[in-house]
Amino acid sequence: MTTLSEKDIVRGPRARELWKLLPAKARRQTFKSARRRQPISDPETAALAVGWARQVLGGPGRRPARVLDQLGYVFMAFITTPSVFAPLDVFDGDEKHDLNPYVRWLARQIEKTNPVHG
Fold first, then answer.
1. CA distance 42 to 39
2. Among candidates 25, 40, 7, which has minimal Cα distance to 111?
3. Residue scoring higher pLDDT (33 or 65)
4. pTM across the whole model
5. Mean pLDDT score across all residues of the chain
6. CA-CA distance, 32 to 106, in Å (whole number)?
7. Which of 60, 83, 94, 107 is the most buried (most CB within 10 A)?
Protein backbone atom coordinates (compact mmCIF):
# COMPACT_ATOMS: atom_id res chain seq x y z
CA MET A 1 0.00 0.00 0.00
CA THR A 2 1.19 3.48 -0.86
CA THR A 3 1.88 5.71 2.12
CA LEU A 4 1.15 9.36 1.45
CA SER A 5 2.05 12.38 3.53
CA GLU A 6 0.34 15.76 3.44
CA LYS A 7 3.29 17.23 1.52
CA ASP A 8 2.74 14.68 -1.29
CA ILE A 9 -0.83 15.77 -2.00
CA VAL A 10 -1.45 18.04 -4.97
CA ARG A 11 -3.42 20.98 -3.58
CA GLY A 12 -6.02 23.46 -4.73
CA PRO A 13 -7.20 24.09 -8.28
CA ARG A 14 -3.93 22.65 -9.58
CA ALA A 15 -5.14 19.18 -8.51
CA ARG A 16 -8.20 19.51 -10.72
CA GLU A 17 -6.16 20.85 -13.66
CA LEU A 18 -3.69 17.96 -13.46
CA TRP A 19 -6.52 15.45 -13.00
CA LYS A 20 -8.08 16.66 -16.27
CA LEU A 21 -4.72 16.16 -18.01
CA LEU A 22 -4.39 12.61 -16.73
CA PRO A 23 -5.16 10.14 -19.52
CA ALA A 24 -8.72 8.78 -19.44
CA LYS A 25 -7.36 5.25 -19.03
CA ALA A 26 -5.49 6.25 -15.86
CA ARG A 27 -8.61 7.94 -14.44
CA ARG A 28 -10.70 4.84 -15.23
CA GLN A 29 -8.13 2.62 -13.48
CA THR A 30 -8.17 4.95 -10.46
CA PHE A 31 -11.97 4.74 -10.23
CA LYS A 32 -11.86 0.97 -10.73
CA SER A 33 -9.55 0.73 -7.71
CA ALA A 34 -11.87 3.01 -5.72
CA ARG A 35 -14.93 0.90 -6.56
CA ARG A 36 -13.04 -2.21 -5.42
CA ARG A 37 -11.85 -0.34 -2.32
CA GLN A 38 -8.22 -0.91 -3.27
CA PRO A 39 -5.39 1.61 -2.89
CA ILE A 40 -3.84 3.17 -5.98
CA SER A 41 -0.49 1.53 -6.64
CA ASP A 42 1.30 4.52 -8.23
CA PRO A 43 2.20 7.11 -5.55
CA GLU A 44 2.05 10.09 -7.94
CA THR A 45 -1.39 9.11 -9.23
CA ALA A 46 -2.55 8.47 -5.65
CA ALA A 47 -1.38 11.93 -4.53
CA LEU A 48 -3.14 13.51 -7.50
CA ALA A 49 -6.32 11.47 -6.96
CA VAL A 50 -6.51 12.44 -3.29
CA GLY A 51 -5.98 16.09 -4.27
CA TRP A 52 -8.82 15.81 -6.80
CA ALA A 53 -11.03 14.10 -4.20
CA ARG A 54 -10.44 17.01 -1.82
CA GLN A 55 -11.44 19.43 -4.57
CA VAL A 56 -14.70 17.51 -5.00
CA LEU A 57 -15.47 17.02 -1.31
CA GLY A 58 -13.76 20.00 0.29
CA GLY A 59 -10.75 19.81 2.54
CA PRO A 60 -10.68 17.61 5.62
CA GLY A 61 -12.87 19.10 8.34
CA ARG A 62 -14.67 21.48 5.91
CA ARG A 63 -17.35 19.25 4.44
CA PRO A 64 -20.90 20.48 4.70
CA ALA A 65 -23.76 18.06 4.04
CA ARG A 66 -24.83 18.56 0.42
CA VAL A 67 -27.89 16.32 0.20
CA LEU A 68 -30.23 18.96 -1.28
CA ASP A 69 -27.53 20.10 -3.72
CA GLN A 70 -27.05 16.50 -4.84
CA LEU A 71 -30.78 16.04 -5.41
CA GLY A 72 -30.75 19.24 -7.47
CA TYR A 73 -27.85 17.86 -9.51
CA VAL A 74 -29.75 14.67 -10.29
CA PHE A 75 -32.84 16.66 -11.27
CA MET A 76 -30.87 19.02 -13.54
CA ALA A 77 -29.00 16.12 -15.14
CA PHE A 78 -32.31 14.42 -15.85
CA ILE A 79 -33.99 17.41 -17.48
CA THR A 80 -30.94 18.68 -19.41
CA THR A 81 -29.70 15.38 -20.85
CA PRO A 82 -30.99 15.24 -24.41
CA SER A 83 -31.16 11.46 -24.50
CA VAL A 84 -30.69 8.61 -22.08
CA PHE A 85 -28.11 7.31 -24.54
CA ALA A 86 -26.10 10.53 -24.70
CA PRO A 87 -22.58 9.98 -23.39
CA LEU A 88 -21.77 11.93 -20.24
CA ASP A 89 -18.24 11.82 -18.85
CA VAL A 90 -18.71 12.61 -15.18
CA PHE A 91 -15.14 11.56 -14.44
CA ASP A 92 -13.43 14.23 -16.55
CA GLY A 93 -12.63 16.32 -13.48
CA ASP A 94 -14.95 19.20 -14.34
CA GLU A 95 -16.38 20.83 -11.26
CA LYS A 96 -19.89 20.74 -12.70
CA HIS A 97 -19.91 17.06 -11.68
CA ASP A 98 -18.81 17.67 -8.07
CA LEU A 99 -22.37 17.29 -6.78
CA ASN A 100 -22.96 13.99 -8.56
CA PRO A 101 -23.57 11.50 -5.72
CA TYR A 102 -21.59 8.76 -7.48
CA VAL A 103 -18.60 11.04 -8.14
CA ARG A 104 -18.66 12.10 -4.48
CA TRP A 105 -18.85 8.45 -3.36
CA LEU A 106 -15.83 7.60 -5.53
CA ALA A 107 -13.93 10.60 -4.14
CA ARG A 108 -14.63 9.36 -0.59
CA GLN A 109 -13.43 5.86 -1.55
CA ILE A 110 -10.22 7.29 -2.99
CA GLU A 111 -9.56 9.09 0.29
CA LYS A 112 -10.39 6.04 2.42
CA THR A 113 -8.21 3.64 0.45
CA ASN A 114 -5.25 6.04 0.14
CA PRO A 115 -4.74 7.36 3.67
CA VAL A 116 -2.65 10.47 4.19
CA HIS A 117 -0.40 10.71 7.25
CA GLY A 118 0.97 13.80 8.94
1. 9
2. 40
3. 33
4. 0.72
5. 79
6. 9
7. 107
Q: Where are the domains of the chain?
A: 4-117
Q: Which residue type does 21 have?
A: L
Three-class SS of the chain? CCCEEHHHCCCHHHHHHHHHHCCHHHHHHHHHHHHCCCCCCCHHHHHHHHHHHHHHHCCCCCCCCCHHHHHHHHHHHHHHCCCCCCCCCCCCCCHHHCCCHHHHHHHHHHHHHCCEEC
Reported as a pLDDT band with limits 50, 70 and 90, residue 12 is confident
34, exposed or middle or buried, with CB in 10 Å at 0-12, 13-18, 19+?
buried
Query: How many angstroms separate the Cα of 48 from the Cα of each of 51, 63, 111?
Result: 5, 19, 11
Predicted confidence (pLDDT) per residue in 67-91, tens digit: 556 566 566 655 555 555 445 567 7
Report which of 44, 56, 32, 37 is spatially closest to residue 4, judged by C-alpha positions.
Answer: 44
